[in-house]
Structure formats: C-alpha cells, structure tokens
C-alpha cells in the first residue's frame, strides 16, 4: 500500500500554474547556478538584483507547493536546485536580501518536514550557521528557526548526516555564538522572539549531541543569565528557560550543577509550578523537576528544601482537571507531567506525608472519575460490596486511559512506603482510598480472565494490566496493616472459586521452566508471576499452592532464571515508564530499580519466599522438609540453597539479593556473603593484631580487632572501656552476664563475615544481643521480616575507618613516593610526606605480601611506616580497595571528554602503577580491576595509546602494552608516515606493526569468507 501511494505521488500531474512557476523559477536559477564536474552545482552569482529575482521566484514556487506533489520527480529536482541557490545566496551580507532569503528558507523547511533530510543539508547548515550572530536580529532569528527544524529531524542512526552537521556546529562555534546571543537578551535589548529561538536552538543541539552539553552547563555566566531570564514576567521566556534547563539535565553532571546552585535556582523552579502560572510554564517546571529528582539522592535533596510546595503543586494540578471536567490541550500536558512527577513516590521520604496531607487519594480517584469527588464527597460506604459497586462505576466512567498506569503506580508506591500504623479512618480519608483499592482489585480480576484468552505475544495486555496488578501486589504486602487487610479482603471477595486460575498459573510456570521462551512470552510470564504472588498473599490459597508442589515449581523456575538469565526491566512491560529522553541522556549514575533487570527472578523469589515463610509459620509438612533437608548434601533442598547463594553476586539486583537472603534465613543462613567479608572473616579466630579484649562474666575472654568492630558494631565499644596500656590490647570491654560465649561467637561471626549460620536455638539469644548492641540489620534479618521495598544491601565499606572513627585503632602508616609539586598536610600528624594512617589487620587480610612482611621478623615488620612505591594518587586508590573491595573509577562521560590529553593521562597513570605493584604484592583481584579500567578507557580514548604504551612498557606491563598496540594498529600506516612512532622504542614499534599485520590478515580472511 505504501509503495503504491508513493508511486501515485510521483506520477501526480502538475497543474498549469505550477508548471508556469517552475519555468519562472528556472529562468531565475539558471542565471546563478553553475554545474562543475567534480563539485556539482554551485550558486556563483553575486549580483544583488539577480539574487533578489531568484529569491522571489523561489518564494512563489514554495508558496504553491503541497504535500501531495513533493514526491514528483520535477518537484524533487527543483527543491534540490533551490537548496543550492539558497546556500549561495545566504552567504551574502545584504540585509534586505538575507531577510527575504531566510524567510523563504523557513517556509521551505516547514513544508518539507522530515523529507528535508532526503536532500543534502550540510551546505545549507553551513550557510545558516554563519548568520547566527548577524546584526539584524530578524535574520538571526530566522536562521535559528531553520537550524532548529533541521537539527530536530536528524536521526543519530543516520550517522553521516548527523555527524556532518555536528562538525559544522563545532567548526562555526555555534554554541558559543548562541550563548552570547542569550546573554545579549538578558543584559541587552534583544526581543523576546530572539531569545525564544536562540534558546530553542540551543536546547535542540544539546538534545542531539552529548558532547555539546559540557560547554553549556559549565558556563557560569550563562546559568546566571538564565536565572535572571526565568524571572521575566513573559511566560514564553520562562518556558524557553525551563526547556533549556531540562536539556542541560540530560547530562547527569549538568543536573548536579543545577542542583548545586541551591535555593536560588530551586525556588525559581518551584515558583514556576504555582497555580498562578500558565499551564505551559507549570508543565515545563514539572519536567525539569522530573530530571532533577530522577535519582533518590536528587529527590531527597530537593524535598529537603521544598517538599511541601512541590507536593501541593502536584495535587493542585491533578485536582484542577478533576473539578473542571474535560481538560484543554495545555492542561492535559500539565496533568500528564504532574502524574509523571508523582512517580517520585517510588522513593520513601517526607513527600509521602505531604501527599497524604493534601489528599492524594482524593486526587487519584478524581483522575479516574472527575464526578466522584463532586457527587460522593461526604458519602459513607457501609460495606465492601458497596465499595466494589462504586468502583465499577468509577472504572466505567474513566476517560483518562493514558493517565491510568500512573494512577496505579502512585497507588502502589503510596502503599509500599506507608508507615505501619497509618489509619485513614482517623484522618477522614477512608472512602477514597477504599474505592481506589477496589478499583485496582477489579482490574486485577479482569486481567485474570483476559489473560487466559490473549496470545502469548500480546504486548498490549501486559501494558494495560501489569500496572494495576502490581499495585494490588504492593497493597497486599503493604507494611500498613490497614491497606494490606483491606486489599486482601476486597480481593478475596472478588476471587471466589478462583482455584482453576491458580492451577493454571502453576502449570504455566512449570511449562515455562521446561522451555526457552521468547522475550515477548516472558512479558506474559511477568504478569502471571504477579498474579501468583498476589494469590499467595491470601491465606485461603496458600495451602492449595503448597499441596500442588508450589515450592518445587517455583524452585525449578528460579533455577531456570539463573540458567538462562533473561534480562527484562519493568519498563519493557510497562511502556509508560519508558523515558523518551533515555537514549539521549549521558553521565547519569543511578541506583537501579530494586527489581532491576531480573524481574522474572525477582517475582519468582518473592513467591517462593511467601510459600516457605507461610509453610514454616503454619508448621505444615513442608517445614519438616526444609528443616531436615538442609543436612543432606545433594538433596533438592540443598540444591535450592546452593542456587540461592549464587544470587548474592553483585550482578543481581538488590531486590533479588534481599529476597534470596530472606529465604535463606529460613534455612539458618543470615546475611549477605561477599568478597570483602570473606577476606575479613579470616581474622575471626586470629589473635594477630587483635587490640580489644571482650571479657565475659565467667572471665572467659575473646580477642577481637577494634577497627572491624567499630565499623560493624560500634555499640560494643563503649567509651568507658578499660584501657590496657601494658599489654598488646588497647582496651578491655566487660560484657553483661546475660551474654554467653556461643551467642557472642555468632554475633562476631556476622560482624566479620557479613553473614552467619545460626541454628534454631541460638536465634532468640542472638536477637537479644543484637538489639542491645544496636546491630539493627542483624536484628531485622534474625526476625525474618519481609524485606522493605527499596532496602539497600548493607555496605561492607570500611573506608570511614580511615577517618576519625578508626584513627584510634590505627597502628601503621603507608607512605607514597615523594612528589615535588605536592603540598601535603595531615590532620593527624606533622609528617609532610604523602601518607595514610591505616590498620595492620586490614593490610594483613588483604595482601599476602604484607602479611608475610609483618610475620617476617625483619626490621621492616616492626616499622611504623611502610614505604609504598606508588604515587599518592595510586596509593589512595589501592588503600580504598583494601578497605572496600572497590577501586575508585576515573571521571567519565562529559568530564572525561573535556579534559585535555595531559589530564587524561594523569587520570589513567595510577591504574597502570597499581597493575605493576599488584604483580609483586600478589594482588590478583585488584590487578584485574585496575586492568579493566585501563583497557576500558583506552578503548574509548585511543589517542592516549601512544603515551600509555610507553608508560606500561617501562613498568613491564605487557598485557597493557599489547592492548594499546592493538588499539593503535588501525592507525599504524598514518603514524609511520607522519613520524609519530619515532618516540617509541623499536620493540614497541614492532609490536604495533605486528598488530597491524594481524588486523590486515583478519580483514582479508573475513572478506574471503
């Protein structure tokens, strides 16, 4: 059909009037266009009158164009020649001529739309770019308008066009020019239209090319000018500034820079959200707020200052639509942005309190049915059946389909982060929230019946029903007892005689675990998993699932997920969460969603956790299997335990790791094993470098390491502990008579390793001791409480011990190589050499070389200073790895790209040094981490290879040398001919040459194949 339509357009006959205009056009164009063999057609006439004639002819021709004749070959040929003429004429400096030419160019681009890119636009962009700073503002405005339209239509996937235009933008210094123009408006006398077009063009450039962003958000003068401009009473100026802010926030560093402007900036944004502002201004303020609160850190930072006014602005925008009926176009956009911003409810915080205060439940229900709040504001519902009937009416009258997924998401997040004792009865908010719960449960029920009928690959099914089903799930398992009880009650009423579907879900999962499904099939699996977990939240269905081998089915499904590692994020299932700017963002380092990309595994684990906890709680036969099964290696239970322990790997999402730990707690395994815990655990029964003596009431004593205890359980080291200066121990801590040696041993096991195996009997005593010691995480996990949504995996980061907290236990200094230009000072001691106060036990556990040194009995083993042959920058990173098992990364993204070459080399050099030292100190893990950093940055910044290959060769780091040589191979002929390789040794040149030959041979082989 499409090709037929295009064929009809190409064959469409031109009218007589159009033919006449075409003849007149070419009479004028032929006076200035010359055809060259190599360069093609060029406009070569500088006569003003001829150029005016050409522009008038072009204007008449363009005015008569219509979309249905654009594909006609005569028209296509004419447009190509018109562009050639305009490219040449726009190089004139005659004000009147340029005014005419830019005006007709705007009209041409407007009618061509996206088909503009079918023609070569680079030359036109070049001509227009030169006029952005033209003194006649109307010309500059028209040029900015055309450039914005062209650039906005560029597709990054069409690399040639995209790259060519970017090169012109850089060559013509367009960004600097636009910034000057914006400054001229704020502190000069340019028109509002001038400012709007320039700001809009800059926003478009920033949106298209990540490398353009640094020069804008790092320009303090521009940011100051924009802040002043945002105070302009004209709403169009405010909209232009807010849109530009949103574009800057596409870069994570840009968002941080805006946030660092503090209250003056944020107050401007918050004021733009106010109900006194036009809809367009408020919508743009909500958009920039979404970017700034994209991360939990950003959300907390803003709500700490302006929580109440932002929440009030969101609720006001929702309510205005609810009470006014059908929304206008601008108001519809405002409402959508308000709902998107309301998704900050995914983070816990004070903003939840204010949303409840301003009646978020009433507002959400008003979005579903704007007549509800008017007609039934004071109605009291006497029964759940009445609430269900009202909910049906609400859903039948719902006309805001695009907003509905946001309503369900906000409802779910409100329930998830609600405090346990919240009771809407006391606050007069019972009716609205009860009806919302009933609405969600009705959609859940409908999704069950619809789900049995849809095809496996029906994406529309999951996009419609997943948000509501997920909201029901979060309601059922809400920490708020009222919401959880109400949701279970309503759902139980709606799911009477629903055992057939429950058996269908179990059989579906059973078959899924036996096959390899496509991604689309797995989208359906997500909704089915949510349904199953919801059923498990209803007591009347739990035993049925257990009797139908639910534990075995879910255990097998989890094994299938681990084997196939199918990655699906929630945004794949719920399209309303797809960030339209996601592909264009850069430099954002966010904590991923709690369920991450392991959404199938996450819901499978949640379901298994509910089954096992219910079985244990109800003392059914499964609990006996669980209790006995742990002692049989090779049994199904032991296989499950082994599979669950694999999930502790950091590549899995936090939610999966938490639920794995929760399930394992029923098997007597508590905590989160990891690499640094394994390392520190070696010191658990070692007296080497122990400096604290814990003495029990029966005079038994346990030697421990102060730095580990102060970081993991500081309450065990009270300030009044007895000092033992005459012994190897610095302190003695006398413990209560209620603490026995076995319980203490388990607490210390957890403190050192990060996890512990605890039998049934010691758990009670360990709970008491953990609570007394304020060991909150251990207390919670021993209570086997369901994980709170969004809970962070406990950190085993010991780097705070390098500060004041751990200084009292510091017993050795590591000293870096002297650096002439470095002015080093220490807050602890007067030593001027670059150094760090550290702890022997941490070094002893982390490095075989240092352990051997401390045990050698040589003079160095007794020294208070260890000289490390590294630069200060490298030593800092190495010590950080010792204390956290994490090697700090260099600056990346826009910050890295805008460093000069020398700065980039200085950033990478410490990692090459660490690779060298790691070989001598037998630090294989840290060497792997450092090598990964060097290879990754060389891959993206190959211009550094020349310097890095020499540094690596000097340090005998031949693996890095080989990588650098491989990356230099494609450039070998040019570097050889230009003499760039002369600074390298003959050996290194040979390595690059060999890499080039290998690359050439591989290319030849591939072509032959």
TrEMBL record:
Pfam family, one: ARM_6
InterPro entries per UniProt: ARM-like (IPR011989), ARM-type_fold (IPR016024), ARM_At1g04390 (IPR059007), At1g04390-like (IPR044953), BTB/POZ_dom (IPR000210), SKP1/BTB/POZ_sf (IPR011333)
Family annotation (CDD domains): BTB_POZ_ZBTB_KLHL-like
Pathway assigned in UniProt: Protein modification; protein ubiquitination
SUPFAM superfamilies in alphabetical order: ARM repeat, POZ domain
Residue intervals of the BTB domain: 810-891
Protein name (database record): BTB domain-containing protein
The organism of origin for this protein: Papaver somniferum (Opium poppy)
């Amino acid at each position: 059909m499409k090709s037929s339509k295009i064929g009809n357009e190409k064959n469409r006959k031109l009218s007589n009037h159009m033919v006449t205009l075409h003849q007149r056009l070419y009479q004028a164009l032929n006076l200035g266009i010359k055809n060259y063999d190599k360069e093609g057609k060029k406009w070569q006439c500088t006569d003003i009158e001829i150029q005016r004639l050409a522009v008038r002819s072009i204007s008449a021709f363009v005015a008569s164009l219509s979309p249905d004749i654009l594909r006609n070959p005569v028209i296509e040929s004419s447009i190509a020649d018109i562009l050639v003429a305009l490219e040449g004429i726009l190089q004139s400096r005659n004000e009147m001529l340029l005014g005419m030419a830019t005006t007709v160019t705007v009209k041409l681009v407007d009618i061509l739309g996206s088909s503009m890119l079918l023609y070569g636009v680079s030359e036109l962009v070049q001509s227009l770019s030169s006029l952005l700073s033209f003194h006649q503002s109307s010309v500059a405005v028209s040029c900015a308008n055309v450039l914005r339209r062209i650039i906005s239509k560029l597709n990054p996937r069409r690399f040639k066009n995209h790259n060519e235009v970017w090169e012109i933008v850089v060559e013509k210094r367009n960004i600097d020019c636009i910034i000057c123009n914006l400054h001229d408006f704020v502190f000069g006398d340019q028109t509002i239209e001038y400012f709007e077009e320039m700001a809009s063009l800059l926003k478009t450039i920033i949106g298209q090319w990540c490398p353009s962003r640094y020069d804008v958000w790092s320009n303090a003068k521009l940011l100051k000018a924009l802040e002043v401009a945002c105070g302009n009473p004209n709403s169009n100026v405010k909209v232009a500034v807010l849109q530009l802010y949103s574009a800057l926030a596409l870069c994570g560093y840009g968002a941080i820079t805006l946030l660092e402007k503090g209250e003056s900036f944020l107050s401007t944004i918050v004021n733009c959200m106010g109900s006194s502002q036009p809809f367009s201004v408020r919508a743009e303020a909500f958009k920039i707020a979404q970017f700034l609160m994209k991360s939990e850190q950003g959300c907390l930072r803003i709500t700490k200052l302006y929580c109440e006014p932002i929440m009030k602005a969101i609720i006001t925008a929702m309510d205005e639509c609810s009470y006014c009926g059908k929304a206008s176009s601008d108001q519809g956009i405002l409402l959508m942005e308000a709902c998107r911003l309301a998704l900050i409810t995914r983070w816990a915080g004070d903003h939840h309190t204010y949303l409840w205060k301003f009646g978020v439940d009433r507002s959400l229900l008003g979005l579903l049915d704007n007549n509800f709040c008017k007609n039934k504001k004071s109605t009291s519902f006497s029964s759940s059946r009445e609430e269900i009937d009202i909910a049906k009416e609400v859903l039948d009258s719902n006309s805001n389909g695009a907003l509905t997924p946001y309503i369900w998401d906000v409802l779910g997040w409100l329930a998830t982060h609600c405090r346990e004792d919240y009771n809407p009865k006391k606050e007069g908010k019972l009716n609205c929230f009860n009806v919302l719960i009933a609405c969600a449960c009705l959609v859940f029920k409908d999704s069950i019946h619809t789900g049995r009928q849809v095809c496996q690959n029906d994406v529309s099914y999951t996009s419609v029903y997943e948000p509501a089903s997920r909201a029901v799930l979060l309601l059922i398992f809400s920490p708020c007892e009222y919401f959880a009880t109400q949701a279970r009650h309503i759902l139980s009423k709606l799911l009477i005689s629903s055992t057939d579907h429950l058996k269908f879900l179990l059989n579906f999962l059973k078959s899924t675990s036996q096959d390899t499904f496509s991604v689309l099939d797995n989208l359906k699996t997500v909704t089915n998993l949510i349904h199953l977990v919801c059923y498990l939240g209803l007591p009347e269905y739990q035993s049925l699932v257990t009797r139908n081998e639910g534990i075995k089915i879910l255990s097998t499904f989890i094994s299938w997920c681990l084997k196939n590692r199918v990655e699906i994020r929630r945004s794949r299932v719920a399209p309303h969460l797809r960030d339209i700017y996601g592909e264009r963002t850069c430099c954002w380092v966010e904590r991923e969603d709690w369920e991450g990309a392991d959404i199938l595994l996450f819901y499978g684990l949640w379901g298994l956790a509910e089954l096992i906890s219910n079985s244990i709680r109800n003392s059914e036969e499964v609990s006996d299997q669980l209790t006995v099964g742990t002692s049989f290696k090779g049994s199904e239970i032991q296989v499950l335990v082994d599979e669950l322990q694999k999930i502790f790997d950091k590549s899995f999402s936090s939610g999966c790791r938490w639920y794995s730990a929760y399930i394992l707690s029923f098997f007597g395994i508590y905590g989160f094993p990891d690499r640094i815990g394994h390392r520190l655990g070696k010191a658990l029964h070692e007296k080497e470098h122990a400096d604290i003596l814990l003495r029990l009431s029966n005079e038994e004593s346990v030697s421990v390491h102060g730095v580990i205890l102060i970081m993991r359980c500081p309450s065990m080291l009270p300030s009044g502990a007895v000092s033992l200066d005459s012994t190897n121990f610095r302190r003695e801590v006398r413990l209560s008579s209620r603490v026995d040696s076995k319980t203490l041993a388990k607490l210390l096991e957890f403190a050192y390793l990060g996890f512990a195996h605890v039998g049934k009997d010691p758990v009670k005593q360990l709970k008491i001791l953990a609570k007394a010691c304020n060991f909150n995480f251990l207390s919670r996990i021993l209570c086997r409480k369901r994980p709170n949504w969004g809970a962070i995996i406990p950190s085993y980061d010991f780097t705070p011990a390098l500060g004041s907290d751990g200084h009292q236990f510091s017993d050795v200094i590591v000293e870096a190589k002297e650096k002439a230009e470095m002015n080093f000072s220490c807050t602890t001691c007067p030593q001027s050499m670059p150094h760090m106060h550290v702890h022997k036990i941490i070094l002893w556990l982390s490095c075989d070389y240092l352990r051997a040194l401390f045990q050698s009995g040589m003079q160095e083993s007794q020294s208070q200073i260890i000289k490390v042959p590294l630069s200060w920058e490298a030593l800092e990173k190495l010590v950080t790895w010792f204390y956290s098992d994490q090697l700090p990364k260099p600056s990346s993204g826009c910050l890295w790209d805008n460093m000069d070459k020398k700065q980039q080399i200085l950033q990478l050099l410490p990692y090459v040094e660490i690779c060298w030292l790691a070989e001598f100190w037998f630090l294989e893990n840290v060497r792997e981490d450092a090598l990964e950093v060097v290879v990754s940055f060389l891959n993206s910044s190959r211009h550094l290879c020349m310097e890095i290959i020499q540094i690596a060769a000097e340090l005998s780091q031949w693996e890095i040398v080989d990588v650098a040589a491989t990356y230099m191979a494609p450039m070998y002929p040019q570097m050889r001919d230009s003499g760039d390789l002369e600074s390298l040794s003959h050996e290194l040149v040979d390595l690059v040459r060999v890499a080039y030959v290998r690359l050439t041979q591989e290319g030849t082989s591939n072509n032959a194949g």
